[in-house]
Amino acid sequence: xxxxxxxxxxxxxxxxxxxxxxxxxxxxxxxxxxxxxxxxxxxxxxxxxxxxxxxxxxxxxxxxxxxxxxxxxxxxxxxxxxxxxxxxxxxxxxxxxxxxxxxxxxxxxxxxxxxxxxxxxxxxxxxxxxxxxxxxxxxxxxxxxxxxxxxxxxxxxxxxxxxxxxxxxxxxxxxxxxxxxxxxxxxxxxxxxxxxxxxxxxxxxxxxxxxxxxxxxxxxxxxxxxxxxxxxxxxxxxxxxxxxxxxxxxxxxxxxxxxxxxxxxxxxxxxxxxxxxxxxxxxxxxxxxxxxxxxxxxxxxxxxxxxxxxxxxxxxxxxxxxxxxxxxxxxxxxxxxxxxxxxxxxxxxxxxxxxxxxxxxxxxxxxxxxxxxxxxxxxxxxxxxxxxxxxxxxxxxxxxxxxxxxxxxxxxxxxxxxxxxxxxxxxxxxxxxxxxxxxxxxx
Length: 443
Fold this sequence. Notes:
The chain is of the alpha/beta class. The chain has helices at residues 15-24, 29-46, 81-90, 100-107, 128-134, 191-202, 231-245, 257-269, 287-294, 300-320, 336-348, 353-360, 388-396, 424-437; strands at 2-8, 54-61, 75-76, 148-155, 160-167, 177-181, 206-210, 250-255, 275-281, 373-378, 400-405. The N and C termini lie far apart (59 Å). The longest helix is centred in the last third of the chain and has 21 residues, at 300-320.
């Protein structure tokens, strides 16, 4: 038996073209509305401003092979709505097919260290897109840390500064310090950053929530744009607080783009003190692959979200620093690669997007990582990709533990555990650090 398959159409297409396609579906319109109502309501919850249409692209068998569905992603819809929705939840969307090594690793029994629990997705949230989007709205406990806001000079040449929110234990030098770095268009107040900050503080660690340049409402603190090559900014924050408090142990934790930054810095610094550990959640370690994945039809909604934020930020920078940035004449930018090629490369010293992706990717330096490092990677992440050679380099490095899960979405990892333990990645990273540095506290 087969079920009808549909894809998200490119909403940049004209309304006229989309209307014609919808008109062609007239015989099935009532059935589509009945069967996919819940799905469409969910999409509209996050993407109310995005025009979405359903276009038939063929059919796929229910007996899907063990490998996850290959690109482009499909929304599985049929007249047997209950059965199809059950099937739809089973398969992640927009993922790269598993390699033989990944399949063997996932299927092979392995002894887990005591701090590492198996990730089991929340009931109904096995789908990668559900994980990714719902994770941004799930209620969390109140954030109670009374953080100190401090700016740190990261580039004396142009005066660029970044804003950090810090929480210090009574004797900072006696405790592990955890520096947290957010993802693209995030900030120190991102929900996942606050979540892991509260856990690390409760475990006895100093916590530094770092904003990248311009993020967290700090466009005025730097005459430059922020980008994935600025691992030196993370290093400058580490050096600043190390000099002030005499820190002896600093662990870096990064999400997505922040994961690339902390891995890149670790590869560049090797064993240089006080860096003692690194953890990265869904790191964008191969930038070119991730940028192209964002432009896939099933991932365009994420790309538009990022582009809207990046373009607004660019116009703010042009207003603040008109002698540096010229917003007029940029023209329409329809992809992240275009933004990187026409804006980031132009203003940040790269010859183009490809040059930027190569020089900024942590994949180039992962073999230089020389401190204990944990990487959490969801195989169904909608838009983070990893080249086979990067995967092999991580597996060769004895200091790197690459934990790959079948589900998890992008930086979500909403588990079946009760209460606040639903946030599996945050809990796992803190347990990992406590395993390395002594018991229940960071001292």
